[in-house]
Amino acid sequence: MKKFIKQSVEFLKERGFEAPEIGIILGTGLGQIIENVEVIAEVSYNHIPNFPTATVEFHKGKLIYGILGGKKVILMQGRFHLYEGYTLLDVTFPVRVMYQLGIKKLLVSNASGAINLNYKKGEIMLIDDHINLQGGSPLAFRGVEKMGERFVDMSAPYDSKMNETIESIAKKNNITLHKGVYASVVGPQLETRAEYRYLKIIGADAVGMSTVPEIIVANHLGLPVSAVSVLTDECDPDNLKPVDIPDIIAAAGKAEPNMITLFTELIKSL
């Protein structure tokens, strides 16, 4: 794997991806932040050696390098999921590449469903902890110890300093920001009523199909990470309506300006 990472890194350096400070992974329907970036270079995933390709129609599939909030950033416009047929190593490969390019912090966003019914559609949740229900680990491969500690401590997977800053930015800008536990499932099917009840019992406040693998790898690399969920639907098992994907994308778009404020102001402060 080290060889593959090195090839990707060299390719990107040749295309001007020089000394980035912060990596950003954009979730479903959360691409507008690009408009705030002074773009220096961009490359489609399918041109980068060893990179997976985004197959979800509302995920763009580009790596963008530029200036945001006065800092050099790399943005993943479109991420990879287990439900696309990728492995956990594929899903987290870009995090390892961004780390080797030089990022010192990682910010992650996703669209998720609110299990906690005090949280409403269009609001944002800062992830304080997570539950991995994806049935595997991106660290469960032979030779992992050559790339970092095999038995990674996950007692505090999200960076408390960055999280505190995000909370104070939300307060200052009158943004409703919840704090809670994110459960990551495989998907792509949405949950049944019984599954939503189960998720609530085990302590999840929101559920989605991404993020946790990237967080695990960030911790493996010793990379401080923060993540926010844009809540795109309310998962009430007693009043469950059929899923409407365009409605989920629209809800993500509505909440996105607040997420952009949180990320941009955080980046300025780092």
From TrEMBL:
Alphabetical list of CDD domains matching this protein: PNP-EcPNPII_like (cd09009)
MF GO annotations: purine-nucleoside phosphorylase activity
Pathway(s) annotated for this protein in UniProt: Purine metabolism; purine nucleoside salvage
Residue intervals of the Nucleoside phosphorylase domain: 21-268
InterPro entries: Nucleoside_phosphorylase_d, Nucleoside_phosphorylase_sf, Purine_phosphorylase
E.C. numbers: 2.4.2.1
Biological-process GO terms, alphabetical: nucleoside metabolic process
Keywords (A to Z) from UniProt: Glycosyltransferase, Transferase
Cellular component terms per the entry's GO annotation: cytoplasm
Family, similarity comment: Belongs to the PNP/MTAP phosphorylase family.
Task performed by this protein: The purine nucleoside phosphorylases catalyze the phosphorolytic breakdown of the N-glycosidic bond in the beta-(deoxy)ribonucleoside molecules, with the formation of the corresponding free purine bases and pentose-1-phosphate.
Protein name (Swiss-Prot/TrEMBL): Purine nucleoside phosphorylase
Provenance organism: Cochleicola gelatinilyticus
